[in-house]
């Protein structure tokens, strides 16, 4: 039976059903407002009940009729419309998620300082659900100290502020500040709703994730590499972003699109990946080394393609060891209490080799899984056992790599709390 509280919740929204997740899509006045139509479509087609709350300036880019037709709900910018329903309070109270896309520099400033001069800013103040901001603006505006302080304030309060993408901006400008792909924004929101928590538990944290497989050049056309697709590392980065963390993803040769809300550093070799990871780890609360880093590289690089010889022989390739990034991170932590997580891909004696590697590397957690030509590499699924330095072991059954990613962060989180309290 529907409770009176549920009926009030539905009435405040203007609907008679309470079965669909209720999402407020705030739209502020930037040229990227048209992209929010695609985000709205993804929400409605996946069964969400969406109330669009644009600002007055947003309506210069996309009209109220479009938002109303696409959402099936009334659209207003004013706190004075339908006053008897107290919309400036009820819309935020009834929401399961509020996402502002695009979020202009002006909107971020208003939200950070608690201003409430229209329906959207009032909704942000009354919302007690997760709030996501997807910024879009010119690079200079994003990088301005005032904007960065406002973003830091919002994150500290528990809001998820996704990092803007790098690309073409208004006019001929190119740089960081482009609205992330609507599909990526939707993925962040989906993960937040699926977890069913009010506040992101990694808010205010900076985490570093490595992904992919390094390639060690032999000559201009050949390299030594491995089969890693980077999908597990990307799953870890996306999960951390949805949990409110500032995420730096150091990738090697994945070819995957940059996930929304994540700073991505592209590398190729083990030496390049090491440099990028150590730089990013300087202020990181946790580092997760999911990349498959080559243990060896050719001792010399041939400036021209190595040719076959007439005698039928094959060249001898001398190898040298690459730096052990995981051991280096574990032995020389950039910050007191920094949590370090490693991955161990094994083909036999999986747990025995994993336990030995955990002791040898000195990390806090080691994710151990069995690999092979038809196992894990390139797959959307994974299974593993997470070994901890304290002797505990957490098996993760076969399933989506997203599930393993969530388990890893679930295990990292209490270790962060232990070391900072």
Automatic annotation (TrEMBL):
Co-factor binding details: Binds 1 FMN per subunit.
DNA/pantothenate metabolism flavoprotein C-terminal domain boundaries: 202-412
Chain ranges of the Flavoprotein domain: 22-188
Superkingdom to which the source organism belongs: Bacteria
Positions annotated to bind CTP: 295, 305, 323-326, 343, 357, 361
Catalyzed reactions: N-[(R)-4-phosphopantothenoyl]-L-cysteine + H(+) = (R)-4'-phosphopantetheine + CO2; (R)-4'-phosphopantothenate + L-cysteine + CTP = N-[(R)-4-phosphopantothenoyl]-L-cysteine + CMP + diphosphate + H(+)
Pfam families registered for this protein in UniProt: DFP, Flavoprotein
Record region (Phosphopantothenate--cysteine ligase): 207-421
Names of the cofactor(s): Mg(2+); FMN
Protein name per UniProt: Coenzyme A biosynthesis bifunctional protein CoaBC
Species whose genome carries this gene: Streptomyces roseolus
């Amino acid at each position: 039976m529907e409770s009176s509280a549920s009926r009030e919740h539905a009435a405040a929204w203007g609907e008679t059903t309470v079965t669909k997740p209720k999402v407020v899509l705030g739209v502020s006045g930037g040229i990227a407002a048209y992209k929010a139509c695609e985000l709205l479509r993804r929400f409605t087609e996946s069964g969400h009940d969406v109330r669009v709350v644009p600002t007055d300036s947003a309506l210069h880019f996309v009209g109220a009729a479009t938002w109303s037709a696409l959402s099936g709900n009334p659209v207003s910018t004013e706190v004075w419309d339908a006053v008897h329903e107290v919309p400036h309070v009820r819309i935020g109270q009834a929401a399961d998620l509020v996402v502002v896309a695009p979020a202009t520099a002006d909107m971020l400033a208003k939200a950070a300082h608690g201003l409430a001069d229209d329906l959207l800013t009032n909704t942000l103040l009354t919302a007690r659900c997760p709030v996501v901001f997807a910024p879009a603006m010119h690079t200079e505006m994003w990088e301005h100290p005032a904007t960065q302080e406002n973003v830091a304030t919002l994150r500290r309060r528990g809001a998820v502020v996704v990092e803007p993408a790098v690309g073409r901006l208004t006019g001929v400008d190119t740089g960081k500040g482009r609205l992330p792909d609507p599909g990526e924004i939707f993925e962040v929101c989906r993960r937040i709703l699926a977890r069913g928590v009010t506040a992101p538990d990694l808010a205010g944290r900076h985490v570093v994730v490595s992904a992919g497989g390094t390639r060690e050049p032999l000559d201009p056309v050949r390299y030594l590499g491995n089969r890693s697709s980077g999908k597990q590392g990307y799953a870890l980065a996306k999960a951390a972003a949805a949990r409110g963390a500032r995420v730096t993803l150091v990738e090697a040769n994945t070819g995957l699109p940059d996930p929304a809300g994540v700073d991505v550093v592209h590398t190729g070799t083990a030496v390049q990946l090491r440099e990028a990871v150590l730089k990013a780890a300087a202020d990181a609360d946790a580092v997760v080394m999911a990349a498959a880093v080559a243990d060896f590289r050719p001792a010399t690089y041939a400036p021209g393609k190595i040719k076959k010889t007439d005698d039928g022989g094959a060249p001898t390739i001398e190898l040298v060891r690459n730096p052990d990034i995981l051991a280096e991170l574990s032995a020389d932590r950039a910050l007191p209490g920094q949590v370090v997580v490693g991955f161990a891909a094994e083909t036999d004696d999986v747990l025995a080799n994993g336990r030995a590697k955990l002791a040898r590397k000195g990390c806090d957690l080691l994710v151990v899984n069995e690999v092979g030509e038809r196992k894990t590499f390139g797959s959307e699924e994974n299974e593993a056992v997470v070994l901890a330095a304290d002797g505990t072991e957490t098996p993760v059954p076969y399933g989506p790599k997203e599930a393993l990613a969530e388990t890893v962060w679930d295990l990292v989180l209490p270790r962060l709390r232990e070391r900072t309290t």
